[in-house]
Amino acid sequence: MPAGLYASIASQLAHEGNRPAATAVVDLIYDLLAAASTEQAKQDLLLYLGEAQVGIGELDAATATAQQLPPGNHRDAIVEGVGFERAKAGDLSGALEDATLL
Fold it and tell me: pLDDT digits over 2-13, tens only?
């Protein structure tokens, strides 16, 4: 699925400091999401969107994306990524708060 590649590309662009391009790539995932034809496709795309949002540092957006998913692996993966990034940034209380979403 191209959304997984988009998530990786967006993360790499953000890592290289090209935030405008990273954001534009994330927008491509939003476009795919709008066209999702099944609930499973929507959940898969939400996972990739959340991963991309974590990868570009949009942690609040990633949390909002995770909240659109039912409890389980996809949601947990996004919440885990958000918590990890918050902890890396020194926001341990934020990371703990994210963990309570699991």
Answer: 888 999 999 999
